[in-house]
Amino acid sequence: MNDRLGYVLVALVLLAVVPQASNPPVWWLLVSLLIAIIGAWHLLRGAFLVPERPLQAMQHRTLLMLILTIPFVALVQALPVAQVLPAALSSLPVDIGTQPSTLSLVPMGSLAGAVRVLAYVLFFVLVLEVAGQGARAERLGWILFFGIGLHAFWALIALNALDDFTPWGEKTGSIGSATGFFLNRNSFATFLSFGLVLGLALLIERARAPRIRASRGRTLTSPENLEMAAIGGLCLVMLITIFATQSRLGLTATFAGLAVTLGALQLKAGVRAMTVALQGGIALVVLLVLGVAAGGTGVIERAIFLVGAMEIRLAIYAQAVQMIAERPFLGWGLDAFTPAYEMTRIPGIRTDRVVMLAHSSYLTNWLELGLVFGSVTILCGAMVAVGLVRRLMQRKTHIAMPAAALGVLVVAAVHSTMDFSLEIPANTLAFLAIVGLGLARRRRADRSADS
After folding, report:
1. What pTM was computed for the model?
2. Could you tell me the CA-to-CA distances from 237 to 14, 150, 170, 325, 348 in Å, in that order?
């Protein structure tokens, strides 16, 4: 049953990308409904078959309870409690006529956001459940890797062979850049980064597998060498596609994630720290050369004009910081950034269009949920990082997924500083899948087999 659940969850991650990365509300609501149905079926069926079997989620109670504070706060924001709270918590800095009765400017939007977060939590719980067996977790990791590779292939074909084609109509942004089924180059780059980091970890562990070390007299065209070449080739395709997205931050986050994953695996293998640092530097140069040689000059050209492009974004950041200072305790409401920003817009900042996103997930969380509850995701990320390091230190086999999850965590953390990739549902599902596969504690039978 867990095998089947694992395949369904991986398929959901890969298919959620197709309808515009499930970003339109109708799609992420549908995905949330599917997760609820899958979760209800699995938990009820599991309780019927093996009533005494504990859930893996019970091993991560503190982490999950911390995450659940986010939908709870969103529910409070959507309730008519503004009139009974002190003015310092509920008053608006601008006069809009009638003072709203809720803390959230869009209470129904905050309720919908709470549903989305609950769906993410349930998805993560299900991933933890199937990842209790090391071999299964790694097998699902391979499927995810190849699936993300197919998305990379499609993006290159759509960009180069189909004249920047998108199945959702004519492109209005990121023209000339690889976006696949996404609408934004940076979000797609993050998705590809997850796949590339995952591929690197799986490739290294595959190369170090005992069956490969024990083989003798392999020729250049031996099955083992051909297998490694095919995996490495798919990783190269992902790297080329990341360059084709022309995402500056995406490329930076990718290199950071790859460095952490490579370093973790090398240190686990007993390589000296100085040697690991030297290997990382050489690998960085090689990847840059390969990317530029494959036609990735666009991202280099965009990096040259970074200062000019940052002017508008820095102005948005400045206003976001001001808005956080105006309601620092309970925020403006989950998913309420757009109306809150437009209500307090500083004259002269992008007056030609509505600003939909803060382009920094950290600022968005603090603005919408307040400084305390908006920092929950950062605290959860730190707890996950500690857990992944422990998995790497404790395990003797099946270490690819914890190493990959650690690199993916770094990719998400770096990219979230100046963009909104994890606010895209398809990226969040991919992130939770890889992190869950690496973080889950192995069940007793699996640990005994390892010993």
Report:
1. 0.91
2. 17, 10, 25, 45, 42
